[in-house]
User: Fold these one by one.
Assistant:
Number 1:
Amino acid sequence: MNTFRVGITALLGMVSILVAAPATAVPGAAQSPDPKLTVTDVDLGRTAVAVSGLNRVAVPVTVKAGYNSDDPIDQNTLLNVFLKRSGGIGAVSLMVAGHLTRTAGTLKNGTWTGTVDVPSTANGTFHVFGVLPGETLDGSDGNSTTETLFNGPNLAVTGLHQPKLGVSVIPKVVPFGSGFTVKAAIYDSATGKAYSSRILLQIQNDNLCIEHDAGSKYTDRSGILMASFPAAAADFVTCVRVRGKYFDTLATSWLVLRPGIVSATPSKTSAKVGTIVPVNGSVRGAPAGCAVTLQRLYAGSQWRGVSTGAVRSSGRLTVNAQPPYVGNVSYRVSLPTCGRYQAGVSKIFVIRGI
């Protein structure tokens, strides 16, 4: 559950969201580095930097490398330097010095220069670990090339008044077949207050939560931005992103909550006492692997579990009833909260013991 300070809470309310890694929108994982690239040195123009609020500080980056190609099209090859978190706590775990251009030497023995724009959310220590040639950094062009590993220098970042995101989904639990609205707020984590300026955010869905840049919109001066999505979007990752030049400086992603809608029907409505009666049913949305329990009504007021099962990938389920006595026995199937699916029960049904 996201808990926001006074002011932010009033604007957004409190909402539970299931945070999930985006999993449906990118090509296959990168496989190997570009054999044409050789990196001999990476230098950062500073070893430490302090950044406050929404500001970014440009740190010079210089790469000495060679790209072994005689193809004229490669003469303008760009390099990208990757830095990963090696210490500290902050929202950013990866920084990119993107699109470094060759400013000296030849393609096969040259110097590339550029900057990495460091946000306050990078608070901690970062380490240069690799260099990647090319213009596209997120794999959306289908390129399977990964970084050429290089053990480079460290950069210490002190982040002050770091921004934080608050998110609510309306409605909190999204019915099947219904659209939903996302309300996002960005605020100063040190004060709990808005920055009193219009800030560029992205509220996106599906592959646009992963691709390099999906287009930003300005919040109002309270740091609030809203976006609405159709029903079909509810089964894909939704996200809020604050874009830097080549990487997100702040982001959160989730799958919206869904109601637990359970149906169940016994294979027989009467059976001899002690006979096993399969009960078949389904859970809307097919939350595969989620546990379900067949409950029997005791003493006319208490529901107790008598058998268990699990939702299959088709959304179907099977549990077994066993009438314990002669007469009408009331049952229902219960789904406890499972991931983003809320607890739910089927309609009550009766099996008569004979």
Number 2:
Amino acid sequence: MPSITRDEVAHLARLARIELTEDELDHLAPQLEQIIGLVAQVSEVAAEDIPPTSHALPITNVMRPDVVVACLTPEQALSGAPAAEEQRFRVPRILSEEA
């Protein structure tokens, strides 16, 4: 596999708009090369007969049945509101009409 050059790291940094010092470029080039090598190893192991998974173990969603319970009336819900209008909370305007 071809190695990642310092110039390629600098090019990637420019594309990502990341400012890197000379020392950071020298430090990151071998690290990126190692990361790409490890990704290549994983790609070699991946087989078409193995389905992709998001978790190593099966996950079961724990669901409870919906139960209808009594809820607040609009009057009860708005009883502690500082201001209400047409069975809604009244809040101060924060955007102009033009927005």
